[in-house]
Amino acid sequence: MFYMVSRFLKERLILIALLPVAVVLLGRFWWPGETSAWASSTRFALLTFLVCLLFVGKPVFARLDKKLGVVLLLFGGWVILSVALFDGQSEVLRRGLVLAVFICAVAVLKMDGEAALLNLLRAAALVGTAAALVTIYFELERRGLDFRYRAFRLHSSGVPGFAEFFNPIISGMHIAFAGLTACWCVLFARTPAARIFWFCCLSIIAVYVFLTYSRSAWLALGLGGLMLLALRGRAVFWGIFVGAAILALVVITIKFPQVFSVEAERGTTNRDLIWAMVFDSMPGYWLAGHGAGVEMSQMSIPGQTVVNTHSLYLEVLFQYGVVGLLLFLVALLMATRAMWIDRSNLAVLGVSLLTGSIGVMFFELHSFIHSPNLIWLWIWFPIAIALGSRVKRNAH
């Protein structure tokens, strides 16, 4: 009986794994009810996958990248110790378990359902393009052709419940994820018509990302795009993208002549003060940190009060200490190396996402182990791809 159930679930594991990943990738744009309903649906779908994985888990786990898996297990063990011994928040354990199941689901799809996952990513890129186009249209309809630099910042579509991110940085990063996927589609499209279509999608997304005036989103899209070109860009693609970038730069310089002076004047937007306060709070906590999930005390900077480190690296250091930060950095390096060696279609996209996030983490992102958020997309998703990349490497 157990064998029959195991065989039945094994044949359908890809479909069951695809469901929670689809909820994460597509549900962030629209989901019935509040944001909590989306998170609850994600947890339910992941629980379903976990139950199935327990029946067929051994053959699946045996094919994962063992070295990266060991590092992730060590980091998970450190998180547990942080909660048990260093006054961490127990809620992190539940969130960490949900996150671990998500990582397993993506890894399973990388090993056995890469084509299905790529189609899902294409669908998410199309939804992201639609969100960008709708947002730009409604913003222009509401404000007119007001193209003064930073006269407005895109963050919500204007359609109730659809692509309402309410924050320019968050919206920029969500749409930049779709932008990198669209860029990947341009490079891997099989027909000229498909390349033109995806290039149009990428152009719409690029306009949206620029109009969020989120330097984090600019950096993520720029670094990830360069990595895609480095891995898969032929000379003609380099020419097209460099030409488009130069044209965009000329248009921006003409339309927004003050762009460089304004951004230079903004500088780090007081992040240096925040980072200094983070380091000032570390004496006595360097090795193990303040505890998993522990938030910083409110910090006052000119014009506002902040409660996060404005650097994911510093958040990991603050909560998990030098040990946790080193384990996290080792995981990032090993994941990057695994996907670099793999070079499969999905691995190329994964390493570009991770490259973009590695740069952004110096200046932005927070809530390291949490409910579905940007870190799931930009960090844990590509790490999960790397975890499932071993099969492809052996095949080569």
TrEMBL record:
Residues 202-329 form the O-antigen ligase-related domain. InterPro entries: O-antigen_ligase-rel_domated, WaaL-like. Coiled coil: none annotated. The chain crosses the membrane at residues 12-31, 37-56, 68-86, 92-109, 116-138, 165-189, 196-215, 235-252, 273-292, 312-334, 346-369, 375-391. Keywords: Membrane, Transmembrane, Transmembrane helix. It is found in: Membrane. It is a multi-pass membrane protein. One of its GO terms (cellular component) is membrane. It comes from the Bacteria. This is O-antigen ligase-related domain-containing protein. It comes from Stutzerimonas zhaodongensis.
